Amino acid sequence: MNERPEKEGIDLTVVDPAAESQDAEAPADKPVSTFRLVATLAVAGALAGLLIVLVNLHTKPIIDEYRAEQLKLAVYEVLPGVSNYRTLYRVDGNLVGEVPAGSKASDFRQAYIGYDENGEIIGAAVSRGESGFADIVLVIFGFEPDTGILLGKKVLESKETPGLGDKIFKDQDFVQQFFDRPQTPLTAIKAGSGKGLPGEIDAITGATISSKVVVSIINNGVAEWQPLLQRADLGPAEPEEAP
To answer: In this structure, is residue 207 part of a structural domain?
Structure first.
């Protein structure tokens, strides 16, 4: 009887993955250098600052030119009928046609004297800002230096509440009152409650504070500038050209 050859034994090794992972060494945490973090933040901050400076240098002349053009248009708007105007600068309590040598015009407050085609004075325009409900409200307005009669006004800057406070420049009925030649000082009254007195301005319903701020700006501005204008030489000299 033939014997069958015995099968060779096969050794099998069973590996437990969980045990193997436990035996393996965990990767060592690499220490983070505080100096590197600070240096990285410093470089990023410097680059961001440099970018802001470069953008500002590029855009500031454009913004300044735009504001100057908008101001010029506003002067003609608040002095209806003006053909041209000249700028006077407030220096040491007086109005002069030129700033001191070595000074910048922007360092001094300014008044704009408007003339008709015959060179006759129509009025003066000045700007003034005061705190409103939300932030500073900046207004330019025109008036007759001799009589104090208001000729017009325009809001240059305002962050008053949209839909309410912004009506000081969006509500045409409110705005028109300042072009109807009211006598200063003005008085803000509840809409429809006027008695026909000079200087009455119907306040905007729901935006009484903003309305009163505009009236206050004009009253304080006229009181401040009228004495200066009355003793200044307002004769035309190198007037600004109309835009």
So the answer is: yes
Tokens of 139: 């207004």
Residue 95 placed within a domain? yes
- Number of folded domains in the chain? 1
Q: What single DSSP character describes residue 87?
A: E
For residue 56, what are its two tokens?
């500002």
Taking only the tens place, the pLDDT of each residue in 169-180 is 999 999 999 999
User: Residue 177 CB: number of other CB atoms within 10 A?
Assistant: 16
Gap between the Cα atoms of 211 and 38, Å rounded: 51
Q: How far is CA 34 from its chain centroid?
A: 42
Show the domain range for 97. Answer: 57-230
The Cα 57–Cα 51 span in angstroms is 10
CA distance linking residue 177 with residue 153, whole number of Å:
9
Within a domain: 37: no
* 47 three-class SS: helix
Tell me the mean pLDDT per 10 residues along the chain, length 243. Answer: 52 54 55 76 83 73 73 94 94 92 91 94 96 90 97 93 90 96 95 88 92 96 96 78 61
Spatial contact of 71 and 154, defined as CB atoms under 8 Å apart: no
For the question of whether the overall pTM of this predicted structure is more than 0.85, the answer is no
Q: Is the dihedral of CA 110, 71, 211, 181 positive or negative?
A: positive
Give me 113's structure tokens: 């004297």
Phi, psi of 151 (to 5 degrees): -105, -25
Is residue 219 in some structural domain? yes
Query: For residue 61, what are the contacts with CB-CB under 8 A and spacing of at least 6?
Result: none
